[in-house]
Amino acid sequence: MVPELQKTTVRIQQPERVMGLIRAIKEQGGSKLQVISDFDMTLSRFGCNGRRCPTSHNILDNSHVISEDGKKKLKDLLHHYYPIEIDPNRSLEEKRPLMVEWWTRAHELLSQQKIQKGDIAQIVRESDVMLRDGFNELFDQLHKYNVPMFIFSAGVGDILEEIIRQANVFYPNVHVVSNYMDFDDNGVLKCFKSPLIHTYNKNNSVLQGTAYFQQLSTRTSIILLGDSMGDLTMADGVPSVENILKIGFLNDKVEERRGKYLDAYDIVLESDETLDVVNGILRFILMET
């Protein structure tokens, strides 16, 4: 059915259930399907040749437009808060206020750096960001079959849109909700627009008033792609869900977090830097039989 599911990186707790889900989505057809995806470390790579790849925030933090002092402060925040973000022993209730604190402090620091809107394209070009292998096929397939792709990101919207644009896959079926910069009349960053989106509030609370899912109310089959426990709620704004297949990329602390991921995601991809499995499933679903 989907040969890619035989890859050694794939772990599935309930194979029969997952196969049934994939078949049900195929029966409903492409006109009922939508994809909801995280961006950083889900569509973009976690690592390459043993080095970490940057997130959309990291791209900004590491760029030439940030002062050395600013870089140090942003790195200190990362070292303090990232272990909390991925700690399997802390509850989401405990993590949420701390994530708000982290994002708020990081955005305040960035807003002091006089970042120019006109610099964004160059910042992205000079970065080490990499989309996962197979991103072309993913975006091309969804575009070809008119399947809407909703990217729900706690990163920096202006940066991630530029990444997709430079990869030549920013098609009209792609819609992004993220943290966007607010520039003054001279094109200088003054602050970030609200609402603030962090790892653990990617749900209805920040989508109030977005008509996006309402317009897609007939799209009741969902493929959800994420890499964190916070990504599991990304489809909460969808008015009626008939079938949802959740695919999780487990990038870091694999042994320690495997159990939690297997309980939460239908398919878990361990240290897999490709979109092979997602593309294989989509090929099966969208192929006219």
Automatic annotation (TrEMBL):
GO MF annotation list: 5'-nucleotidase activity; magnesium ion binding; nucleotide binding
Xref: CDD domains: HAD_5NT (cd07504)
Enzyme class: hydrolase
Record flagged with keyword Nucleotide-binding: yes
Entry superkingdom: Eukaryota
BP GO terms, sorted: nucleotide metabolic process
InterPro entries given in the database record: HAD-like_sf, HAD_sf, Pyrimidine_nucleotidase_eu
SUPFAM superfamilies linked: HAD-like
Gene Ontology CC terms: cytoplasm
Enzyme nomenclature, EC number: 3.1.3.5
Subcellular location(s) of the protein: Cytoplasm
Principal location class: cytoplasm
Alphabetic keyword roster: Cytoplasm, Hydrolase, Magnesium, Metal-binding, Nucleotide metabolism, Nucleotide-binding
Function of the protein: Specifically hydrolyzes 7-methylguanosine monophosphate (m(7)GMP) to 7-methylguanosine and inorganic phosphate. The specific activity for m(7)GMP may protect cells against undesired salvage of m(7)GMP and its incorporation into nucleic acids. Also has weak activity for CMP. UMP and purine nucleotides are poor substrates.
NCBIfam families hit by this protein: HAD-SF-IE (TIGR01544)
Family statement: Belongs to the pyrimidine 5'-nucleotidase family.
Stated name of the protein: 5'-nucleotidase
Organism: Phasianus colchicus
